[in-house]
Amino acid sequence: MRGPRFSLRTKLILSFLAIIILGGLLSLVVGSRLVRDTLISQAQAKVRHDLSSAWIVFNERLSDIKNIVRLTASREGVRDLLRSRQIDILLKYLSRVRAENGLDVLSLLDRHGRVLVRTNSPKTAGDDQSQDEIVRLAFKQEAVAAPQIVLREELLKENEALAAQALMDVIPTPRAAPHPGSQETRGMMLKAAAPILDEGSSPLGVLVGGILLNRNYEIVDRVKGIVFKGERYKGRETGTATIFQDVVRISTNVKNEKGERAIGTLLSAEVKKAVLDEGQPWVARAFVVNDWYITAYEPIKNIAGAIIGILYVGTLEQPYLDTANRVILTFTLIAGLCVVFLLVILYFSTTQIIRPLHKMAVATREIAKGDLSHKVEVSSRDEIGALADSFNQMTDHLRKANEKLIDWGKTLERKVDERTQELREIQSHLIQSEKLASIGKLAAGVAHEINNPLGGILIYSHLILEDTPPGHPHHENLNKIVRETTRCKDIVKRLLDFARPKEPERAPTDIHDLLDRCLAFTERQALFQNIRVEKAFQPSLPRIIADAGQLQQVFMNIIFNAAEAMGGNGTLTLRTFYNSDRNEVAVEIADTGHGIKDEDRKRLFEPFFTTKEAGQGTGLGLAISYGIIQKHHGTIKVRSEPGLGATFTVILPCRGMEP
Questions:
Q1: Which end of the chain, N or C, is less surrounded by CB atoms within 10 Å?
Q2: Is residue 346 part of a domain?
Q3: Segment 187-245, tens digit of pLDDT
C-alpha cells in the first residue's frame, strides 16, 4: 500500500521546516543558558567587588575607634592624671571623650589589668580584664583593634542598656541553619586598646574603647548607601548588607515580610557550612530571609584568628532573572520572525525548482538583463503550468514593486536624513545632561573623600595647638589652620547635606520652643550683641509633626543671615501665627538690614549662589533649607526691598505628613 502523495513543494517545505525548527530550538536552549550564566557571573563579580567595598567601610570604622583610643591614651594629661590617681577627673574627661566620639565603651585599666575607670558604670570598676586578648596585646605593643564577642556578664558591667541592645530573640527562617537557643545574649564589639606609657615607655595602664554592633546600623547602612546608592526594583531595594554574629543577624538592612529589619533571623545552612565551618568565602546565590539573592559572604575573625561572624553583601537575584527572561523572549520572537521569513523565501525557492530548467534558464537570463516584462510560455495546466503562470504574474508585480521601491527609497532617504538630524540634537542634549549629572556625583564623591582627611587635620591641629603656648610664634598660625579646617569641614558637610539630603525624623514639635532654643543659642554670639530681638508669638499655637533638628537648622540659617544683613546692629522680629482655613503654621523672621535686590531674590535658593564676599559663604545654606522645608511639605516666601530689610516666611502644615 502506497502512502499519501505529497507535492514536491510540500516535501521541500517540510524538510526545511524540520531543520529550521530543530536548529532554532537548539540555539534557543544554548543561548538561554549562555545568557543566564553570563548575567549571573557578572552579578557575582559585582557583589564580590561590593564585598571589598564593605570591608573598607568595616575596617575604616575599626581604624577610627583605634585612632580615638590611641590618641586619647597618648595625651600627657591622661598619663599625669593616671599617675596621680585622680580618678574623678579621669572619669569626667573620658566620659566626655566617649560621648563626643560615639563610643559605647571607654574604660581605663591599671598596669595589672584591673578596671580603674568605667565611664558607663563607675561603681562597677575594679574587675580584672587582664585575660582579655586585646588588653594583653595592648600591654605588649602600641595599639591594637579587632572585632570581639562580649559576654552578657561583661555588657552588664557596662550598663543594662548595652546588654539589652545585644539581647535578641532568634527567629527561624526557611533554609536557615539551626541555633542552639531561642535568644542570643552575647554581643559583637569593634574593640580597641592602647597602652598609657610613662617617660620610660613602661605601661602605666591600658585604655579600652569600642562600639557594640548589635542593632547598630551605621556600617551596614553606609555600605548600602555607598555600594548600591538606593537602587530599587519593583518598589524593593535591590542591595543589602549584614553583619552576622555566628549565625544570627545582629545588624542588617535586609527586610522581613513586615518591612522591618530582619534582626535575629538566621544564616542559611549551606552558607554556614562553607563560611563558618570551613572558613571559605561564599559568592553564589543564597536564600536570604524570604527571597533569593546573589550574595558574597566572608568570615569575620577576632584578634586570635577565630571566626566569630560574617560580613555579607547581596543583591536581589530577580532583576537579573527578569533581564535574562526578557533577552530570551526577544531571542524567541526574533527566531519566530526568522522562521516566518525563511518560510516565505522557501516558498519562492520551491516555485523555481519545479519550473522546467530550460524555460527557467531563459526567463532568469531575461530578468537578469532587466527585462521585467518577459513572459514565461504556459504549456500545461498542471503544477508546472500553474507555476509558469504565477511566474508571469510575479514579474509584473516585481516591475511595479521596483517602481514603488525606487519612489519609496527616495522618500525613505529623505526621512532618514530628517530623523538622523533629530537624533543628533537629542543625543547632544543627553550628553549635556549626563555631564551635569556626572559633575554633581563627582562633587558629592569628592566631598565625601576629603571629609575624613579634613577630620584628621583638624584633630592633629587641635593637639598641636594645645601643646603650643599662647606666646609661641606658631600659635596664631595654628589657630588659623584650625579655623580654616573647620570652615572646610562645614563646607563639605553642607555639600554632602545638599547632595544626599537626609529624610526627616518626624515627631510632635512645638514651634515656640524650637524658636526659643534658636534665640538662646544666639545670646552669647558677638554678632547679636547690638541686635534687639522682638517676639510676637500667637498663643496656643498647635504642634506640628516635623524633624525638630532640621527645622532648627533652617531657622538658625535665616536668623544668622538676617544678623549679617544688619551688620550686627538693628531689630530682629520673630512672629508666629496659625491659619485655621488652611491648617498651617507660619513663622516670620524679619530684619532691618540692607534688603535684597530683585535680581538676587530670584536666585536666593539656587545652590552655590551667594552675595557674600569670597570665603564668607558657600551658597548652600538657603538651598539646603529650601530642601528641608520641601521635605516637610511646606514653603518659604521672601519679601524685601533694597534698604528696607527682608522678611522670610516659613509655612508648615499641621496635619500628619506621610514619610
A1: N
A2: no
A3: 999 999 999 988 878 889 999 999 999 999 999 999 988 888 878 887 777 889 999 99
Q: Convert the pLDDT of each residue in 10-53 to its tens digit.
A: 776 777 777 777 777 777 677 677 767 677 788 888 888 999 99
What separation in angstroms does the CA of 191 have from each of 105, 195, 207, 212, 281? Answer: 9, 14, 11, 9, 24
3-state secondary structure of 579: strand
What's residue 658's pLDDT?
A: 39
Last residue of a domain, one of 276, 294, 320: 320
Q: Is 619 exposed, middle or buried (0-12, 13-18, 19+ CB in 10 A)?
A: middle
Q: How far is it, in rounded angstroms, from Cα 346 to Cα 263?
A: 64
Tens of pLDDT, residue by residue over 54-90, are 999 999 999 999 999 999 999 988 998 998 889 999 9
Residues 521 and 493 placed together within one structural domain of the fold? no
The answer to whether residue 288 sits within a structural domain is yes
Going by pLDDT thresholds of 50, 70 and 90, the confidence category of residue 439 is very low
- Picking from 339, 347, 345, the residue whose alpha carbon sits closest to that of residue 22 is 339
Report residue 48: phi and psi, to 5°. Answer: -65, -40
The model's pTM is 0.50
Last residue of a domain, one of 301, 320, 339: 320
What is residue 114's three-state secondary structure? strand
The distance from CA 558 to its chain's CA centroid, rounded to whole angstroms, is 30
340 inside domain:
no
Nearest to 50 by CA among 242, 268, 314: 314
- Domain-embedded: residue 286: yes
We report the CATH number of the domain holding residue 223 as 3.30.450.20
C-alpha cell recorded at residue 388 = 509558469
Q: Which domain holds residue 439?
A: 355-500
Residue 233 and residue 115 in one domain: yes
- Dihedral sign (CA 28, 31, 37, 39): negative
Direct distance between the N- and C-terminal alpha carbons of the chain, in angstroms, rounded to an integer: 82
Amino acid at 372: L
For residue 386, the surrounding DSSP H or E stretch is helix 383-466
Q: Domains in the chain: how many in total?
A: 3
Cα–Cα dist 579/584, whole Å? 5
Burial zone of 251 (CB within 10 Å; 0-12 exposed, 13-18 middle, 19+ buried): buried
- In this prediction, residues 475-497 reach a mean pLDDT of 71
177/220 same-domain check: yes
Q: Let me know whether 314 and 435 are in one domain.
A: no
- CA–CA separation, 443 vs 306, rounded Å? 41
Q: Are residues 494 and 516 in the same domain?
A: no
Claim to verify: residue 374 and residue 311 sit in the same structural domain: no
Q: Are residues 533 and 459 both part of a single domain?
A: no
Positive or negative, the CA dihedral 613, 617, 618, 619 is negative
Report d(CA 61, CA 68) in Å as an integer. Answer: 11
Reference 244, options 189, 300, 169, 178; nearest CA is 300
- Give pLDDT, residue 386: 67
- Residue 621: the pLDDT is 72
Mapped onto helix, strand or coil, the DSSP state of residue 303 is coil
